[in-house]
Amino acid sequence: MKAKAVALILGLVLALPGWVSAQEYRIGAVFSITGPGSSLGIPERDTALMLEAEVNAKGGIAGPDGKRHPVKVIIYDDGSDETKAVLAAKKLIEEDRVSTIVGTTLSGTSLAILDTIQKAQIPLVSCAAAIKIVEPVQERKWVFKTPQSDFLIIGVLTEHLKAKGLTRVGWLHVDYAFGDLGWIEFQKAAPKAGLQIVASEKFGQRDVDMTPQLTRVKAANPQAVVVWSIPPSASIATKNYYDLGIKAPLFQSHGIGNKTYINLAGPGANGVVFPVGKLLVAEQLSDTDPQKPVLLAYAKAFEAKYGPRNTFGGHAWDALQLVFRAMEKTGPDRAGIREAIENTRNFVGITGVFDFSPKDHNGLDQRAVTMVQIVEGQWRLAK
User: Fold this and answer.
1) Alpha helices, DSSP H only, in the chain?
2) I want to staple 131 with a disulfide (CB 3.0 to 4.6 A). Which of 106, 149, 246, 325 is the partner?
């Protein structure tokens, strides 16, 4: 009887939340699994689940105490909504007691949770692009991000347009944080590259027809047109562009780096060129590129479980790997994780080779961006 009683008590102790949290390393995640950002958030979620399973299959993270700790990634869907993102972040911090958070998917939702993150003093590794997420750095002590900043992407795009002699440019962007901040950066970069913006338009995230805006852009007789958005609106704009018979080449943002864009856009996607990371064209890279083996390994693992690779899953891979590496050094200590990420150097990830510092919480340069063209529904390195 005594043995049974001891076993029962031990079982109850092991079931207590406090005991579990002392044993496992808890990581929070907020992704746009539903809503307009779902084509980005779903592969981020899938990547997080894949990595959680991979780490735990090896016994967990080897912490500084010399023991392996199972990883628990607690994932919430913000529905591509800023208010829901804030509520999810607060729940992860206050109820789930996570050590760090990865996400959110979109620039707007990431910006929305910054105040919550800073006040709680918990590390955040965002999967969204806007430079304002991590700058000014002195006001973003606890915040990092893995996608290339919009100014890096825009810089490569404008140099490409200049090199092609496409100096008269029409512009359209989605009317929320990602598009608005991209527009700000394009206005800065275009004059420096000798480009003239001959027309600018915007559209709503849930709009289903951009024909009026594109008609006005067409009337300005541009040599090239840039659309700055994500699917589905980026795909709708592409279909409208194709239907209007606009002859100027169409350029898009890194927000279209998945097959969803191609599938929704149809034949209009062929010929579209966009600046993005190297994952989509990993096989076409030089064997001397330090990212190539990492990219190929991730692409193989992801595609075996979930289907075609995309850059957004790669952003989540980078974010979680940064957290795993930090936890190996510091365990679940929030301040320690923040410091470890900030001091990460030469981390070869999916998005690029990261060199973080107290002055740079993105850690990437233009080497993390390449120009890609869609040819017969496939990604190709642009000439």
Assistant:
1) 2-15, 17-23, 38-57, 82-94, 107-120, 150-163, 177-192, 211-219, 233-243, 259-265, 292-306, 311-330, 334-342
2) 149
